[in-house]
Design brief:
seven-stranded antiparallel beta sheet, globular, 528 residues, alpha+beta, 10 helices, 20 strands
Length: 528
């Protein structure tokens, strides 16, 4: 039997190690996207690749990382001092800008004073602002993955403590901002090193057997709590369907449909009625879909339990190969991680609202509002690439209004502060405010979105990957939908509405205005 006090202590010790990894990564990174927006995640795994603990970072990263670790274990012969790098979405990655680093934890043999035993792994995943591809920022309107940037299968970037200069040179030769990428790569290596050191110290203090025992205990605990949640839901079949605006190639909406079957302590999540994979870049790989499922069920539990691999044991996920939620190579997937993951959450919550109406919120903004800008920075005399996601309105619940101007669901980043943005890039932020009254009306109102205007100070290539521009975030129980988002180009006195997904060359002096969606309302509004 597990000692409940020790179980709680180990839960916090493991999580604090992952959090400290994140602090190292933030403080040593070069790019504003990592050091200011915190677009990264860190986690701890056991020797078989099961995720034990994670920091409170980004759900879409963390749920997918176990597949990356499992792939690395299968393909790589690890040794002490190694660091494996990968970003291939079809091998556990999410999209190409998210580079994952995996470092093994070895424990020396005290008795023999020679050799060591593999105990587990630490991993970090960070969004790099450019990894090559057809447009700056590596979030293009692509039609195949080869257009999106450099594809990295599991490779040893560091081998027994020595940096593999050839691999690093290959990576840096394929990106637009090599100095920034090199700094961010070193930051991830440092973060993983800190995680290894802290876990080795924990094992030295408590012993390998006890630490391993409570790793297993936390997996069992998360599984029990997930089973308890599912068992509290009425048995039955719950269906919901929503759509993506389009794939950036055609204007056709793309349906995502789910059927959730609750049977006792288990749930089957079936996406078989969803669309086939599409030409554009909104296809999601299986790891992203699994992340969304893990996020939703973990969020509904509500208790302070670790979001580890144990949460997935009572869940069966059916995502047909070749579909929008489980695309086959060489599908374009840059937007699947950021946009399709959000719609998957929307349909999961829409289905579960029928089983647990008091627990489930109305739809949140349903987009990460991805913006990439790249070109030549005349002041600094070198290329630049900028990437940012933007917050919006959260959906209202049965007991509270939705929060305004915040990142929602599968993302958990900050914004780039205006001062940092204008220092690092040739832009000027001319307007940044809450988009008042964009949340849906109801007994409880949906949160409001954001209105942001940016003036370019140099010519640049701009790409927008956004959603909820043609279909509004839904309300629940009689609540109204939130307002749709809108993208505008302001050139002098002329204003042009831009589609939800577009890549275009803008001139110095052009202003890009982005209005993000509001969240849906909950319950019928009371007459005053």
């Amino acid at each position: 039997m597990y000692d409940s006090i020790l179980l709680e202590l180990f839960k916090h010790r493991f999580a604090s190690i992952a959090e400290e990894m994140g602090m190292v990564l933030r403080r040593t990174a070069y790019s504003p996207n990592i050091k200011e927006r915190l677009d990264f995640s860190c986690a701890i795994f056991n020797a078989t690749g099961q995720m034990i603990a994670q920091a409170a970072h980004i759900p879409v990263h963390l749920g997918a990382m176990p597949i990356s670790v499992a792939t690395a274990i299968k393909q790589i012969e690890f040794a002490p001092g190694d660091v494996v790098i990968l970003n291939d979405p079809f091998q556990g990655g999410s999209h190409l800008p998210d580079l994952t680093m995996i470092t093994p934890i070895y424990i020396p043999h005290v008795e023999t004073k020679s050799g060591s035993t593999l105990f587990g792994f630490v991993a970090s995943r960070a969004h790099h602002a450019d990894v090559g591809g057809m447009t700056p920022g590596s979030m293009p309107l692509s039609t195949e993955i080869y257009q999106e940037g450099l594809i990295i299968p599991p490779l040893k970037l560091v081998e027994q403590g020595q940096l593999n200069q050839s691999i690093q040179q290959l990576i840096l030769a394929n990106v637009r901002t090599p100095e920034e990428r090199a700094g961010d790569l070193r930051a991830q290596i440092a973060a993983n090193s800190k995680g290894v050191t802290r876990l080795q110290g924990l094992i030295a203090q408590h012993g390998q057997a006890e630490v391993s025992y409570y790793m297993t205990g936390l997996l069992d605990y998360a599984e029990r709590m997930t089973r308890r949640l599912i068992n509290q839901l009425p048995d039955g079949e719950y269906q919901f369907e929503d759509v993506l605006d389009n794939d950036g190639v055609t204007d056709e909406p793309i349906p995502i449909a789910v059927t959730i079957t609750i049977a006792g302590e288990t749930a089957t999540v079936d996406f078989s009625r969803s669309a086939k994979q599409v030409p554009g870049s909104v296809n999601a790989v299986y790891a992203v879909t699994l992340s969304a499922v893990l996020y939703v069920f973990r969020a509904l539990i509500g208790l302070d339990i670790p979001a580890n691999s144990g949460c997935l044991v009572p869940l069966t996920v059916i995502a047909p190969a070749g579909s929008i939620v489980n695309a086959n190579r060489p599908a374009a997937v840059a937007g699947g991680n950021v946009e399709t993951s959000q719609r998957i959450v929307d349909v999961l919550l829409g289905a579960l609202a029928q089983a647990a109406p008091d627990l489930v919120p109305a739809a949140s903004q349903g987009s990460m509002n991805n913006l990439t800008i790249g070109g030549w920075n005349p002041e600094m005399g070198k290329p630049f690439t900028y990437y940012e996601t933007m917050g919006g309105g959260l959906g209202a619940t049965a007991s509270a209004d939705g929060a305004s101007a915040t990142q929602c669901h599968m993302t958990n980043t900050l914004n780039t502060p205006v001062e940092a943005l204008e220092y690092a890039y040739p832009f000027r932020v001319t307007r940044y405010e809450v988009r008042r009254n964009s949340g849906g009306q109801g007994a409880h109102r949906g949160g409001d979105g954001i209105r942001r205007e940016m003036e370019l100070l140099t010519d640049a290539q701009v790409t927008l990957l956004t959603e909820r521009r043609t279909r509004a975030p839904y309300g629940l129980e009689g609540g109204e939908a939130g307002q749709m988002g809108r993208n505008m180009l302001i050139r002098g006195k002329e204003q042009t509405e831009l589609p939800s997904k577009v890549s275009l060359h803008l001139q110095a002096g052009d202003i890009l205005q982005i209005e993000t969606p509001g969240g849906g309302g909950h319950g019928e509004a009371q007459e005053s």
